[in-house]
Amino acid sequence: MLENTSQTTLPIYPQLLTPLPGPKTKALIERDTAYISPSYTRGYPLAIASGYGAMVTDPDGNRFLDFCAGIAVCATGHSHPEVVRVIKEQADKFLHMSGTDFYYDVMADLAERLAKSAPRTEAEGGEPKKVFFANSGTESLEGAMKLARYHTKRKKLISFYRSFHGRTYGTMSLTASKSIQKSRFSPLVPDVLHAHYPYFYRDIFKSATPDDCAEACLDYIENYLFKMVTPPEEVAAFVLESIQGEGGYVVPPAKFLVGLQALAKKYGILIVADEVQSGMGRTGKMWAAEHFGSYEPDIICSAKGLASGLPLGAIIARSNVMDWPPGTHATTFGGNPLSCAAALKTMDLLEGGLMKNATVQGDYLKSRLMPLKDQFDMIGDVRGIGLMLGVEIIKDKASKEKASALRNQIVDECFEQGLVILGCGENTIRFSPPLVICQEQVDCAIDIFTRVLKKHAS
Ligand code: PLP
Fold first, then answer.
1. What is the pLDDT of residues 342-374, one digit of tens each?
2. Ligand 1: which of 73, 276, 278, 428 to mutate, judged by most atoms within 8 Å of the beta carbon?
3. CA angle 316, 257, 306 (to 5 degrees)
4. Residues 179, 180, 184, 188: is their CA dihedral positive or negative?
5. pTM more than 0.90
6. Quick check: CB of 241 below 6 Å from ligand 1?
7. How far, in Å, CA of 277 to CA of 418, rounded?
8. Is the CB of 246 under 6 A from ligand 1?
Protein backbone atom coordinates (compact mmCIF):
# COMPACT_ATOMS: atom_id res chain seq x y z
CA MET A 1 0.00 0.00 0.00
CA LEU A 2 1.17 3.45 -0.88
CA GLU A 3 2.64 5.72 1.74
CA ASN A 4 1.71 9.37 1.85
CA THR A 5 -1.92 8.92 0.86
CA SER A 6 -5.06 9.66 2.77
CA GLN A 7 -6.46 6.19 2.17
CA THR A 8 -4.03 3.82 3.83
CA THR A 9 -6.50 2.25 6.27
CA LEU A 10 -9.74 2.85 4.41
CA PRO A 11 -11.39 0.72 1.68
CA ILE A 12 -9.75 1.16 -1.71
CA TYR A 13 -12.25 -0.62 -3.94
CA PRO A 14 -15.68 0.38 -5.22
CA GLN A 15 -18.81 -1.00 -3.60
CA LEU A 16 -22.29 -0.51 -5.01
CA LEU A 17 -25.21 -0.86 -2.60
CA THR A 18 -28.13 0.39 -4.72
CA PRO A 19 -29.07 0.52 -8.39
CA LEU A 20 -27.67 3.74 -9.88
CA PRO A 21 -28.69 6.38 -9.27
CA GLY A 22 -29.90 5.50 -5.76
CA PRO A 23 -32.97 7.26 -4.29
CA LYS A 24 -31.08 10.06 -2.52
CA THR A 25 -28.95 10.78 -5.56
CA LYS A 26 -32.08 10.79 -7.74
CA ALA A 27 -33.74 13.35 -5.46
CA LEU A 28 -30.61 15.51 -5.50
CA ILE A 29 -30.45 15.43 -9.29
CA GLU A 30 -34.12 16.49 -9.52
CA ARG A 31 -33.46 19.54 -7.30
CA ASP A 32 -30.28 20.31 -9.19
CA THR A 33 -32.02 20.10 -12.56
CA ALA A 34 -34.71 22.52 -11.40
CA TYR A 35 -32.26 25.23 -10.42
CA ILE A 36 -28.85 24.70 -12.04
CA SER A 37 -27.90 26.12 -15.44
CA PRO A 38 -28.50 23.55 -18.20
CA SER A 39 -25.17 24.42 -19.85
CA TYR A 40 -23.21 21.81 -17.88
CA THR A 41 -22.42 18.49 -19.53
CA ARG A 42 -23.17 15.84 -16.91
CA GLY A 43 -22.89 12.49 -18.69
CA TYR A 44 -23.95 10.03 -15.96
CA PRO A 45 -25.64 10.47 -12.57
CA LEU A 46 -22.77 10.64 -10.07
CA ALA A 47 -23.26 12.81 -7.00
CA ILE A 48 -20.63 13.03 -4.29
CA ALA A 49 -21.33 13.16 -0.56
CA SER A 50 -17.76 12.54 0.60
CA GLY A 51 -14.36 11.46 -0.67
CA TYR A 52 -10.92 10.32 0.44
CA GLY A 53 -7.90 9.36 -1.62
CA ALA A 54 -9.18 8.02 -4.94
CA MET A 55 -12.57 7.01 -3.51
CA VAL A 56 -15.83 8.96 -3.64
CA THR A 57 -19.09 8.02 -1.92
CA ASP A 58 -22.49 9.10 -3.16
CA PRO A 59 -25.45 10.15 -0.96
CA ASP A 60 -26.74 6.54 -1.04
CA GLY A 61 -23.49 5.09 0.31
CA ASN A 62 -22.25 3.72 -3.05
CA ARG A 63 -18.47 3.90 -3.26
CA PHE A 64 -16.68 4.62 -6.55
CA LEU A 65 -13.09 4.44 -7.69
CA ASP A 66 -12.32 7.89 -9.07
CA PHE A 67 -10.09 7.93 -12.15
CA CYS A 68 -11.03 11.49 -13.07
CA ALA A 69 -10.15 13.43 -9.88
CA GLY A 70 -12.71 16.20 -10.41
CA ILE A 71 -11.36 16.78 -13.94
CA ALA A 72 -7.69 16.33 -13.04
CA VAL A 73 -7.94 18.64 -10.02
CA CYS A 74 -7.65 16.54 -6.85
CA ALA A 75 -3.94 15.83 -7.36
CA THR A 76 -3.39 14.74 -3.76
CA GLY A 77 -6.64 12.79 -3.65
CA HIS A 78 -9.93 13.82 -2.13
CA SER A 79 -9.58 15.72 1.13
CA HIS A 80 -6.00 14.72 1.85
CA PRO A 81 -5.77 15.08 5.66
CA GLU A 82 -2.62 17.19 5.48
CA VAL A 83 -4.19 19.56 2.96
CA VAL A 84 -7.36 19.79 5.05
CA ARG A 85 -5.28 20.49 8.17
CA VAL A 86 -3.42 23.46 6.66
CA ILE A 87 -6.66 24.88 5.22
CA LYS A 88 -8.25 24.74 8.70
CA GLU A 89 -5.19 26.31 10.30
CA GLN A 90 -5.22 29.12 7.77
CA ALA A 91 -8.98 29.58 8.20
CA ASP A 92 -8.44 30.15 11.90
CA LYS A 93 -5.98 32.96 11.10
CA PHE A 94 -7.76 34.91 8.31
CA LEU A 95 -9.81 34.08 5.20
CA HIS A 96 -9.10 37.03 2.95
CA MET A 97 -7.30 40.34 2.72
CA SER A 98 -6.68 40.70 -1.04
CA GLY A 99 -3.20 40.35 -2.44
CA THR A 100 -4.07 43.16 -4.85
CA ASP A 101 -3.54 45.74 -2.09
CA PHE A 102 -1.90 43.93 0.85
CA TYR A 103 0.78 41.40 1.75
CA TYR A 104 0.62 38.00 3.48
CA ASP A 105 3.13 35.23 3.92
CA VAL A 106 1.44 32.22 2.26
CA MET A 107 1.05 34.20 -0.97
CA ALA A 108 4.74 35.19 -1.03
CA ASP A 109 5.81 31.68 0.03
CA LEU A 110 3.83 30.04 -2.76
CA ALA A 111 5.06 32.54 -5.37
CA GLU A 112 8.66 31.75 -4.42
CA ARG A 113 7.99 28.01 -4.53
CA LEU A 114 6.28 28.16 -7.95
CA ALA A 115 8.87 30.53 -9.40
CA LYS A 116 11.64 28.13 -8.42
CA SER A 117 9.75 25.11 -9.77
CA ALA A 118 9.45 26.36 -13.35
CA PRO A 119 11.89 25.11 -16.00
CA ARG A 120 14.86 27.49 -16.06
CA THR A 121 17.56 26.66 -18.54
CA GLU A 122 20.84 28.23 -19.41
CA ALA A 123 19.28 29.22 -22.73
CA GLU A 124 17.45 31.99 -20.88
CA GLY A 125 20.49 32.94 -18.81
CA GLY A 126 18.84 31.40 -15.75
CA GLU A 127 16.43 34.35 -15.61
CA PRO A 128 14.30 34.09 -12.41
CA LYS A 129 10.49 33.94 -12.54
CA LYS A 130 7.65 35.94 -11.06
CA VAL A 131 4.08 34.87 -10.33
CA PHE A 132 0.60 36.38 -10.72
CA PHE A 133 -2.23 34.61 -8.88
CA ALA A 134 -5.69 34.12 -10.38
CA ASN A 135 -8.65 31.93 -9.41
CA SER A 136 -9.00 29.45 -12.25
CA GLY A 137 -7.50 28.12 -15.45
CA THR A 138 -9.35 30.51 -17.72
CA GLU A 139 -8.29 33.50 -15.61
CA SER A 140 -4.65 32.41 -15.75
CA LEU A 141 -4.77 32.18 -19.53
CA GLU A 142 -6.72 35.42 -19.81
CA GLY A 143 -3.98 37.15 -17.79
CA ALA A 144 -1.25 35.53 -19.87
CA MET A 145 -2.88 36.87 -23.05
CA LYS A 146 -2.78 40.36 -21.57
CA LEU A 147 0.79 39.96 -20.36
CA ALA A 148 1.97 38.71 -23.77
CA ARG A 149 0.37 41.69 -25.51
CA TYR A 150 1.66 44.12 -22.90
CA HIS A 151 5.22 42.87 -22.95
CA THR A 152 5.64 42.49 -26.70
CA LYS A 153 3.46 45.47 -27.72
CA ARG A 154 2.09 43.10 -30.39
CA LYS A 155 -1.55 42.13 -30.91
CA LYS A 156 -1.79 38.69 -32.45
CA LEU A 157 -1.90 35.32 -30.74
CA ILE A 158 -1.55 31.89 -32.28
CA SER A 159 -3.19 28.93 -30.59
CA PHE A 160 -3.84 25.42 -31.88
CA TYR A 161 -6.65 23.23 -33.15
CA ARG A 162 -8.20 20.94 -30.51
CA SER A 163 -6.85 23.19 -27.74
CA PHE A 164 -8.92 24.10 -24.70
CA HIS A 165 -7.95 27.18 -22.72
CA GLY A 166 -11.22 28.19 -21.07
CA ARG A 167 -14.57 29.82 -21.69
CA THR A 168 -14.21 33.55 -20.99
CA TYR A 169 -14.02 35.75 -24.09
CA GLY A 170 -10.24 35.81 -24.43
CA THR A 171 -9.69 32.14 -23.76
CA MET A 172 -12.75 31.09 -25.75
CA SER A 173 -11.13 32.85 -28.69
CA LEU A 174 -7.98 30.75 -28.19
CA THR A 175 -9.94 27.53 -27.66
CA ALA A 176 -10.53 25.39 -30.75
CA SER A 177 -11.83 22.19 -29.25
CA LYS A 178 -15.58 21.91 -29.92
CA SER A 179 -17.51 24.48 -31.95
CA ILE A 180 -20.52 24.25 -29.57
CA GLN A 181 -18.31 26.08 -27.06
CA LYS A 182 -18.47 29.15 -29.33
CA SER A 183 -22.04 28.76 -30.49
CA ARG A 184 -23.82 32.18 -30.74
CA PHE A 185 -21.12 33.87 -28.61
CA SER A 186 -19.44 35.88 -31.37
CA PRO A 187 -17.85 38.33 -31.82
CA LEU A 188 -14.78 36.85 -30.19
CA VAL A 189 -11.48 38.58 -29.39
CA PRO A 190 -9.89 39.52 -32.71
CA ASP A 191 -6.37 38.70 -33.89
CA VAL A 192 -6.34 35.08 -32.69
CA LEU A 193 -5.13 32.60 -35.31
CA HIS A 194 -5.05 28.81 -35.14
CA ALA A 195 -2.38 26.39 -36.29
CA HIS A 196 -2.00 22.59 -36.31
CA TYR A 197 -0.86 20.73 -33.20
CA PRO A 198 0.91 17.46 -34.04
CA TYR A 199 -1.56 14.59 -33.62
CA PHE A 200 0.26 11.72 -35.22
CA TYR A 201 -2.55 9.17 -34.90
CA ARG A 202 -4.81 11.37 -37.06
CA ASP A 203 -2.21 13.46 -38.82
CA ILE A 204 -3.79 15.58 -41.55
CA PHE A 205 -0.39 15.83 -43.23
CA LYS A 206 -0.18 11.99 -43.45
CA SER A 207 3.40 12.05 -42.13
CA ALA A 208 5.45 8.86 -41.90
CA THR A 209 6.73 9.48 -38.34
CA PRO A 210 5.81 11.68 -35.34
CA ASP A 211 8.88 13.82 -36.07
CA ASP A 212 7.73 14.33 -39.68
CA CYS A 213 4.35 15.33 -38.31
CA ALA A 214 6.06 17.88 -36.02
CA GLU A 215 7.97 19.28 -38.98
CA ALA A 216 4.84 19.56 -41.10
CA CYS A 217 3.10 21.53 -38.33
CA LEU A 218 6.08 23.88 -37.98
CA ASP A 219 6.31 24.28 -41.74
CA TYR A 220 2.63 25.26 -41.83
CA ILE A 221 3.28 28.08 -39.37
CA GLU A 222 6.40 29.42 -41.03
CA ASN A 223 5.54 28.94 -44.67
CA TYR A 224 1.77 29.41 -44.68
CA LEU A 225 0.64 31.44 -41.65
CA PHE A 226 3.67 33.74 -41.61
CA LYS A 227 3.81 34.17 -45.38
CA MET A 228 0.11 34.34 -46.24
CA VAL A 229 -1.85 35.33 -43.12
CA THR A 230 0.20 37.42 -40.71
CA PRO A 231 3.70 38.86 -40.54
CA PRO A 232 5.44 37.10 -37.61
CA GLU A 233 6.50 40.50 -36.27
CA GLU A 234 2.85 41.13 -35.33
CA VAL A 235 2.54 37.97 -33.24
CA ALA A 236 2.80 38.35 -29.46
CA ALA A 237 2.67 34.68 -28.44
CA PHE A 238 2.07 31.07 -29.27
CA VAL A 239 -0.36 29.69 -26.69
CA LEU A 240 -0.43 25.91 -26.35
CA GLU A 241 -1.00 23.06 -23.95
CA SER A 242 2.18 21.10 -23.27
CA ILE A 243 -0.02 18.03 -23.68
CA GLN A 244 -3.49 18.64 -25.09
CA GLY A 245 -6.16 17.79 -22.51
CA GLU A 246 -9.80 18.33 -23.46
CA GLY A 247 -8.84 17.85 -27.11
CA GLY A 248 -8.01 14.17 -26.54
CA TYR A 249 -4.85 13.77 -24.42
CA VAL A 250 -2.53 14.34 -27.34
CA VAL A 251 1.24 14.30 -26.64
CA PRO A 252 3.37 16.32 -29.09
CA PRO A 253 6.81 15.10 -30.19
CA ALA A 254 9.65 17.00 -28.45
CA LYS A 255 10.74 18.06 -31.92
CA PHE A 256 7.59 20.17 -32.25
CA LEU A 257 7.98 22.07 -28.99
CA VAL A 258 11.71 22.60 -29.39
CA GLY A 259 11.17 23.66 -33.03
CA LEU A 260 8.36 26.03 -32.03
CA GLN A 261 10.66 27.59 -29.45
CA ALA A 262 13.30 28.16 -32.13
CA LEU A 263 10.69 29.73 -34.39
CA ALA A 264 9.46 31.90 -31.52
CA LYS A 265 12.97 33.12 -30.75
CA LYS A 266 13.66 33.87 -34.40
CA TYR A 267 10.69 36.25 -34.54
CA GLY A 268 10.60 37.58 -30.95
CA ILE A 269 7.40 35.70 -30.11
CA LEU A 270 6.63 34.46 -26.58
CA ILE A 271 5.55 30.92 -25.72
CA VAL A 272 2.68 30.56 -23.25
CA ALA A 273 2.44 26.98 -21.96
CA ASP A 274 -1.01 26.06 -20.70
CA GLU A 275 -0.23 23.56 -17.92
CA VAL A 276 -3.65 23.86 -16.32
CA GLN A 277 -4.38 20.16 -16.85
CA SER A 278 -0.93 18.70 -17.51
CA GLY A 279 0.92 20.46 -14.67
CA MET A 280 1.25 19.92 -10.92
CA GLY A 281 2.92 16.55 -11.08
CA ARG A 282 0.32 14.77 -13.18
CA THR A 283 2.89 13.55 -15.68
CA GLY A 284 5.47 12.64 -13.03
CA LYS A 285 7.22 16.02 -13.29
CA MET A 286 5.91 19.27 -11.87
CA TRP A 287 5.37 20.62 -15.41
CA ALA A 288 4.76 18.49 -18.48
CA ALA A 289 7.02 20.90 -20.42
CA GLU A 290 9.95 19.32 -18.57
CA HIS A 291 9.52 16.12 -20.60
CA PHE A 292 10.50 17.81 -23.84
CA GLY A 293 14.24 18.40 -23.81
CA SER A 294 15.37 22.02 -23.86
CA TYR A 295 11.82 23.39 -24.20
CA GLU A 296 11.38 26.33 -21.82
CA PRO A 297 8.18 28.33 -22.18
CA ASP A 298 8.32 32.04 -21.35
CA ILE A 299 5.03 31.92 -19.45
CA ILE A 300 3.41 28.94 -17.68
CA CYS A 301 -0.26 28.93 -16.70
CA SER A 302 -1.41 26.68 -13.88
CA ALA A 303 -4.69 25.95 -12.06
CA LYS A 304 -6.67 22.67 -11.53
CA GLY A 305 -4.32 20.52 -9.37
CA LEU A 306 -2.48 23.53 -7.95
CA ALA A 307 -4.43 23.71 -4.68
CA SER A 308 -5.79 20.14 -4.50
CA GLY A 309 -9.35 21.29 -5.16
CA LEU A 310 -9.49 24.85 -3.84
CA PRO A 311 -9.76 27.48 -6.58
CA LEU A 312 -6.41 28.93 -7.57
CA GLY A 313 -4.64 29.82 -10.80
CA ALA A 314 -1.12 31.06 -11.41
CA ILE A 315 0.83 32.73 -14.20
CA ILE A 316 4.55 32.05 -13.89
CA ALA A 317 6.73 34.15 -16.19
CA ARG A 318 10.34 35.18 -16.56
CA SER A 319 10.77 38.34 -14.52
CA ASN A 320 11.89 40.31 -17.55
CA VAL A 321 8.64 39.29 -19.27
CA MET A 322 6.38 40.03 -16.29
CA ASP A 323 7.12 43.73 -16.64
CA TRP A 324 3.64 45.20 -16.32
CA PRO A 325 3.46 48.12 -13.85
CA PRO A 326 1.01 48.54 -10.91
CA GLY A 327 -2.60 48.83 -12.04
CA THR A 328 -2.27 46.89 -15.28
CA HIS A 329 -3.64 43.61 -13.90
CA ALA A 330 -5.11 42.45 -10.58
CA THR A 331 -7.95 40.48 -9.00
CA THR A 332 -9.67 40.65 -5.62
CA PHE A 333 -9.63 36.95 -4.82
CA GLY A 334 -6.55 35.68 -6.69
CA GLY A 335 -4.06 34.14 -4.28
CA ASN A 336 -6.69 33.50 -1.62
CA PRO A 337 -4.83 32.49 1.58
CA LEU A 338 -6.70 29.18 2.02
CA SER A 339 -5.86 28.24 -1.57
CA CYS A 340 -2.22 29.29 -1.15
CA ALA A 341 -1.88 27.21 2.03
CA ALA A 342 -3.45 24.22 0.24
CA ALA A 343 -1.09 24.72 -2.72
CA LEU A 344 2.02 24.86 -0.54
CA LYS A 345 1.00 21.57 1.08
CA THR A 346 0.15 20.14 -2.34
CA MET A 347 3.68 20.92 -3.53
CA ASP A 348 5.14 19.28 -0.38
CA LEU A 349 3.14 16.13 -1.09
CA LEU A 350 3.97 16.11 -4.80
CA GLU A 351 7.68 16.52 -4.16
CA GLY A 352 7.51 14.14 -1.18
CA GLY A 353 6.42 11.15 -3.25
CA LEU A 354 3.28 11.74 -5.30
CA MET A 355 5.07 12.80 -8.50
CA LYS A 356 7.12 9.64 -8.25
CA ASN A 357 3.94 7.69 -7.71
CA ALA A 358 2.44 9.32 -10.81
CA THR A 359 5.36 7.93 -12.82
CA VAL A 360 5.26 4.47 -11.23
CA GLN A 361 1.48 4.02 -11.38
CA GLY A 362 1.26 5.83 -14.71
CA ASP A 363 3.77 3.46 -16.28
CA TYR A 364 1.95 0.52 -14.74
CA LEU A 365 -1.46 1.76 -15.95
CA LYS A 366 -0.07 2.27 -19.44
CA SER A 367 1.47 -1.22 -19.41
CA ARG A 368 -2.01 -2.60 -18.58
CA LEU A 369 -3.77 -0.47 -21.22
CA MET A 370 -1.34 -1.22 -24.07
CA PRO A 371 -2.24 -4.93 -24.43
CA LEU A 372 -5.92 -3.94 -24.61
CA LYS A 373 -5.08 -2.18 -27.87
CA ASP A 374 -4.08 -5.52 -29.37
CA GLN A 375 -6.96 -7.36 -27.75
CA PHE A 376 -9.77 -5.01 -28.87
CA ASP A 377 -10.33 -3.71 -32.39
CA MET A 378 -12.18 -0.73 -30.89
CA ILE A 379 -9.02 0.68 -29.26
CA GLY A 380 -7.11 2.74 -31.78
CA ASP A 381 -4.49 4.44 -29.66
CA VAL A 382 -3.18 4.49 -26.10
CA ARG A 383 -1.10 7.56 -25.29
CA GLY A 384 0.03 9.91 -22.56
CA ILE A 385 2.60 10.39 -19.83
CA GLY A 386 2.32 9.57 -16.13
CA LEU A 387 -1.26 9.70 -14.93
CA MET A 388 -2.49 11.64 -17.95
CA LEU A 389 -3.41 8.75 -20.24
CA GLY A 390 -5.88 8.63 -23.11
CA VAL A 391 -7.47 5.70 -24.93
CA GLU A 392 -8.97 6.46 -28.32
CA ILE A 393 -12.13 4.48 -29.15
CA ILE A 394 -12.77 3.69 -32.80
CA LYS A 395 -15.21 1.62 -34.85
CA ASP A 396 -12.40 -0.72 -35.97
CA LYS A 397 -8.73 -0.55 -36.81
CA ALA A 398 -9.35 -0.86 -40.54
CA SER A 399 -11.42 2.34 -40.71
CA LYS A 400 -10.10 4.24 -37.63
CA GLU A 401 -13.56 5.83 -37.64
CA LYS A 402 -14.16 7.83 -34.45
CA ALA A 403 -16.68 5.99 -32.22
CA SER A 404 -18.04 8.81 -30.04
CA ALA A 405 -21.32 7.09 -29.08
CA LEU A 406 -19.49 3.89 -28.16
CA ARG A 407 -16.97 5.90 -26.12
CA ASN A 408 -19.83 7.49 -24.18
CA GLN A 409 -21.45 4.11 -23.62
CA ILE A 410 -18.19 2.65 -22.27
CA VAL A 411 -17.75 5.59 -19.89
CA ASP A 412 -21.35 5.21 -18.65
CA GLU A 413 -21.02 1.46 -18.18
CA CYS A 414 -17.75 1.84 -16.25
CA PHE A 415 -19.64 4.18 -13.92
CA GLU A 416 -22.37 1.55 -13.51
CA GLN A 417 -19.62 -0.79 -12.31
CA GLY A 418 -18.10 1.71 -9.89
CA LEU A 419 -15.33 3.30 -11.98
CA VAL A 420 -15.44 7.05 -12.58
CA ILE A 421 -13.81 8.10 -15.85
CA LEU A 422 -14.47 10.90 -18.34
CA GLY A 423 -14.21 11.35 -22.07
CA CYS A 424 -12.14 13.98 -23.84
CA GLY A 425 -11.90 14.92 -27.50
CA GLU A 426 -14.48 13.36 -29.80
CA ASN A 427 -13.80 9.73 -28.98
CA THR A 428 -11.10 9.43 -26.32
CA ILE A 429 -11.38 8.21 -22.74
CA ARG A 430 -9.10 9.91 -20.25
CA PHE A 431 -7.56 8.29 -17.22
CA SER A 432 -6.57 11.11 -14.85
CA PRO A 433 -6.81 9.69 -11.33
CA PRO A 434 -5.56 11.40 -8.19
CA LEU A 435 -1.80 10.90 -7.88
CA VAL A 436 -2.32 8.85 -4.69
CA ILE A 437 -3.62 5.75 -6.45
CA CYS A 438 -2.00 2.41 -5.74
CA GLN A 439 -1.38 -0.60 -7.98
CA GLU A 440 -4.40 -2.49 -6.62
CA GLN A 441 -6.62 0.37 -7.71
CA VAL A 442 -5.05 0.41 -11.18
CA ASP A 443 -5.77 -3.32 -11.44
CA CYS A 444 -9.33 -2.75 -10.29
CA ALA A 445 -9.86 0.00 -12.88
CA ILE A 446 -8.43 -2.19 -15.63
CA ASP A 447 -10.66 -5.13 -14.59
CA ILE A 448 -13.78 -2.96 -14.84
CA PHE A 449 -12.68 -1.32 -18.08
CA THR A 450 -11.85 -4.70 -19.67
CA ARG A 451 -15.21 -6.19 -18.60
CA VAL A 452 -17.01 -3.29 -20.26
CA LEU A 453 -14.91 -3.50 -23.44
CA LYS A 454 -15.63 -7.25 -23.68
CA LYS A 455 -19.36 -6.52 -23.72
CA HIS A 456 -18.86 -4.43 -26.85
CA ALA A 457 -16.33 -6.64 -28.62
CA SER A 458 -17.71 -8.30 -31.73
N1 PLP B 1 -6.66 25.13 -19.86
C2 PLP B 1 -6.76 23.80 -19.86
C3 PLP B 1 -5.67 22.99 -20.50
C4 PLP B 1 -7.86 23.15 -19.31
O5 PLP B 1 -7.94 21.82 -19.35
C6 PLP B 1 -8.88 23.94 -18.71
C7 PLP B 1 -10.07 23.31 -18.16
O8 PLP B 1 -10.40 22.18 -18.41
C9 PLP B 1 -8.73 25.33 -18.72
C10 PLP B 1 -7.61 25.89 -19.28
C11 PLP B 1 -9.77 26.21 -18.09
O12 PLP B 1 -9.72 26.05 -16.71
P13 PLP B 1 -10.95 26.49 -15.78
O14 PLP B 1 -12.06 25.52 -16.06
O15 PLP B 1 -10.41 26.41 -14.39
O16 PLP B 1 -11.30 27.87 -16.17
1. 999 999 999 999 999 999 999 999 999 999 999
2. 276
3. 30
4. negative
5. yes
6. yes
7. 24
8. yes
